[in-house]
Design a protein that fits this description.
The chain is an alpha+beta fold. Helices cover about 45% and strands about 10% of the residues.
């Protein structure tokens, strides 16, 4: 019996690649479902709708394509679709730039040479030296699949000493969904979870044949109901800056701005740095953490939960 590709909505088999056709189909369907006729200037005659959102014929009308053509595309058949048609559909669906890019990756995938294994991600030595030189604020390098590849002393003080974890566990998705201490660390944990899943969805559109990504999604789908719920939304977005509120076990509440700098060397890596407002309580707290170094998180948890080791 031929193997069937992994489902885009149900639990993912970690032994199979993600199904690009199913991903395309579900992405278009969920984007269409979130729109109402009045959102796009179409009359709503009050007719009962069996499913939420625009009908296929309404979306096809907005995009200027035939219903049959759009139906084939929503069924996952993106073969020979033009960039102009994709742009028209993206405009009709009111897609963001990140969503439009994701749609293009799903419908018109780049041809990659098949590899027997996924290459290991490496951080350039000068970049590691740069991290070490940033000693006042937490900073780290994140790669594909939300893997945490390198970090400085302050990142370990704020987020925990990742060197204590096996390399495969140094991954934001696993930390956020599978380790309860990170649910306590992020004040807006739900938003952090949404951001992580959105990043994985972007990776899935760009590299659906990545076996490690498929294995990660499969593991999280089995172990976390919250991950399954968020994965099924097919939401994608890129977030290169913002604010995170943390509750650190040693110094309490922290409000930190973050900036992400995408590296231009083709490594799919991003340098992320967090910083407080000058002369703020969070700035004072970071200075205190700097004096503790990598022992900060361990000391804080021991104070909160006597006898418990991380």
């Amino acid at each position: 019996m031929d193997e069937q590709p992994a489902s885009a909505t149900g639990p993912v088999d970690p032994g199979l690649p993600l199904d690009r056709r199913a991903e395309l189909s579900e992405f278009l369907r969920t984007r269409r479902a979130r729109l109402k006729p009045e959102d796009v200037g179409l009359p709503d005659f009050g007719r009962h709708r069996r499913v939420p959102g625009l009908r296929r014929e309404e979306l096809a009308q907005l995009a200027g394509v035939s219903v049959a053509y759009y139906t084939r595309l929503e069924q996952g058949n993106g073969r020979n679709v033009s960039a102009e048609v994709l742009d028209a559909i993206a405009r009709a669906l009111r897609l963001t730039d990140a969503e439009s890019s994701h749609l293009t990756h799903l419908a018109k995938p780049k041809q990659h040479k098949k590899k027997t294994s996924t290459p290991t991600q490496h951080v350039r030595v000068p970049l590691r030296h740069l991290l070490d030189s940033i000693d006042a604020i937490p900073a780290y390098v994140c790669g594909r699949r939300t893997d945490i590849l390198a970090w400085n002393r302050m990142a370990a003080a704020v987020f925990g000493d990742w060197s204590e974890l096996p390399p495969q566990e140094r991954n934001w998705a696993r930390l956020v969904f599978l380790r309860p201490e990170y649910r306590e660390l992020f004040v807006e944990w739900e938003q952090k979870a949404v951001d992580i899943v959105s990043m994985l969805r972007m990776d899935a559109g760009f590299c659906p044949d990545d076996p490690r990504l498929s294995a990660l999604v499969g593991e999280l789908s089995v172990k976390s109901e919250e991950f399954r719920r968020l994965w099924a939304t097919h939401d994608v977005k890129e977030k290169s800056y913002g604010v995170k509120r943390l509750h650190h076990p040693l110094v309490g509440d922290l409000t930190l701005h973050f900036e992400g700098f995408k590296l231009s060397d083709g490594s799919d890596q991003t340098l992320i740095a967090y910083h407080p407002e000058p002369a703020s309580p969070s700035a004072d707290a970071l200075r205190l953490l700097a004096s503790w170094g990598t022992d900060a998180t361990r000391a804080g948890r021991s104070a909160d939960r006597p006898g418990l080791t991380p």
